[in-house]
C-alpha cells in the first residue's frame, strides 16, 4: 500500500523509486522463501516428534507389560519351587496346578488387554463384582499375608459392581496391595480394602499402616520409573517404579481417578473412583 502511494505521488525520482520498490519486492520474496523453509522444517520436526513420542509410548507400554507379567509369574515360580521340594504333598501340588491354570489364564488376558490399550483400542469393559475381583487377587498371590504379620480386612459393600475391564482393574489393585505389603514388611500392620458406592460412582480404598510416603515424593510417585526401592535403600527388593504409573494409566482409561493420602511413619491410603455400570 505505502509503496503504491509513494510512487503515485512522485515522492522519489523515477530511478530511485523503481530501485526502492525492487529492493522491497526482493526482500519480500526472500522473507516468503525463508518462511516457507521454516514451515517445512517445523512440519518435519513435528513429524519427528510424533515418531519419538510414539516410540517412547511403545517403550513404556512394553515395560509395563513386562512388569505385569512379572507380577503374575512371580507367585507361580514360588509355588512351583515349593511343590518341587515337597513331591509327597499331594495337596500342595494340586494347589500349585490350580494357581498355574488361574495365573496362565490371567497372563493371557492381561496381554490382550494391554495390547488393546497400546493400540488405542478400547478395553473390553463389563460390569464387575468388586468383592469377587479382590478375592481372586489374594488367590493369585503366593505368600500368605499373615506370615508377615499383616492382617487383611475387606470392607466391601455386597453386590457392589463397577464398569471396568476386570483384569486390568485387578492388576491395578494387585499393584496397590503389593505396595502396601512392602510398606508393612518390617513391622507388620493392617491392610484394609474398602469399597462403597457414592451416587454414580464407586470408591475403592487400599489402606495400609506401613512406612508412609515422604512429602517430597508425593508429587513423583505416579511418574514412570520413579522408585524409592533401590539397592541403596532398605527395601526388600529393587523396584521398577512402574506399578503406580500403570495404575494411573488404567484408571484414566476408565474415566476414573486415583489419588493418595499418606503420613510418613503412619500409613498410606490410595483412593480410586470408577463409574458404576
Ligand atoms: N503403600 C505405600 N506405602 C509407602 N510408599 C509407597 C506405597 N505405594 C507406593 N509407594 C512409593 O511410591 C513409589 C512408586 O511405587 P510403584 O509401585 O510405582 O513402584 P515400585 O513399587 O517402587 O516398583 P514396582 O514397579 O516394582 O512396583 C515406591 O517406590 C514407594 O516409594
Ligand atoms: Mg510397586
Give structural attributes.
277 residues, Heat Shock Protein 90, 2 domains, 5-stranded mixed sheet, two-stranded antiparallel ribbon, 54% helix, binds adenosine-5'-triphosphate, binds magnesium ion
Explain what the structure shows.
The protein has 277 residues and is α+β, with helices and mostly antiparallel strands. Helices cover 54% and strands 18% of the residues. It contains 6 helices and 7 strands; from the N terminus they run H-H-H-E-H-E-E-H-E-E-H-E-E. The strands form 2 sheets. The chain has a 5-stranded mixed sheet with strand order 2-4-5-7-6, with helices on one face. Strands 1-3 form a two-stranded antiparallel ribbon. The longest helix is centred in the N-terminal third of the chain and has 72 residues, at 14-85. The protein is elongated. The mean pLDDT is 91. The site of magnesium ion has 5 residues, from helix 5.
Write the layout of secondary structure elements.
Blueprint: H1 2-8, H2 14-85, H3 90-118, E1 126-129, H4 130-140, E2 150-156, E3 161-164, H5 166-184, E4 189-198, E5 201-208, H6 243-253, E6 257-263, E7 267-275
Parallel strand pairs: 2-4
Antiparallel strand pairs: 1-3, 4-5, 5-7, 6-7
Name given to the CATH architecture of the largest domain: 2-Layer Sandwich
- Going across the major beta sheet, what is the strand order? 2-4-5-7-6
- CATH superfamily membership of the largest domain, which one? Histidine kinase-like ATPase, C-terminal domain
Q: What small ligands are held by the chains?
A: adenosine-5'-triphosphate, magnesium ion
- Main sheet properties: 5 strands, mixed
Number of domains: 2
What letter string, H or E per element, gives the SSE order?
Answer: HHHEHEEHEEHEE
Amino acid at each position: 500500500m505505502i509503496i503504491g502511494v509513494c510512487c503515485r505521488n512522485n515522492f522519489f525520482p523515477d530511478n530511485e523509486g523503481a530501485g526502492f520498490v525492487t529492493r522491497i519486492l526482493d526482500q519480500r520474496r526472500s522473507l516468503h522463501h525463508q518462511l516457507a523453509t521454516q514451515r517445512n522444517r517445523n512440519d518435519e520436526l513435528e513429524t519427528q516428534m510424533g515418531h519419538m513420542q510414539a516410540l517412547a509410548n511403545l517403550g513404556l507400554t512394553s515395560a509395563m507389560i513386562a512388569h505385569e507379567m512379572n507380577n503374575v509369574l512371580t507367585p507361580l515360580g514360588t509355588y512351583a519351587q515349593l511343590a518341587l521340594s515337597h513331591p509327597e504333598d499331594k495337596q500342595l501340588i494340586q494347589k500349585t496346578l490350580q494357581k498355574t491354570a488361574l495365573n496362565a489364564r490371567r497372563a493371557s488376558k492381561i496381554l490382550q488387554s494391554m495390547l488393546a490399550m497400546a493400540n488405542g483400542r478400547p478395553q473390553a469393559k463389563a460390569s464387575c463384582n468388586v468383592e469377587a475381583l479382590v478375592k481372586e487377587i489374594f488367590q493369585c498371590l503366593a505368600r500368605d499375608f499373615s506370615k508377615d504379620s499383616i492382617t487383611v480386612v475387606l470392607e466391601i459393600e455386597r453386590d457392589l459392581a463397577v464398569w471396568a475391564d476386570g483384569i486390568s482393574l485387578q492388576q491395578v489393585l494387585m499393584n496397590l496391595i503389593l505396595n502396601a505389603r512392602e510398606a508393612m514388611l518390617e513391622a507388620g500392620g493392617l491392610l484394609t480394602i474398602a469399597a462403597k458406592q457414592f451416587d454414580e460412582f464407586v470408591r475403592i480404598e487400599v489402606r495400609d499402616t506401613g512406612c508412609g510416603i515422604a512429602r517430597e515424593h508425593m508429587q513423583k510417585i505416579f511418574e514412570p520409573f520413579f522408585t524409592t526401592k533401590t539397592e541403596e535403600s532398605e527395601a526388600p527388593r529393587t523396584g521398577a517404579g512402574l506399578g503406580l504409573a500403570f495404575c494411573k494409566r488404567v484408571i484414566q482409561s476408565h474415566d476414573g481417578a486415583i489419588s493418595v493420602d499418606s503420613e510418613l511413619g503412619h500409613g498410606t491410603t490410595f483412593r480410586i473412583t470408577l463409574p458404576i455400570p
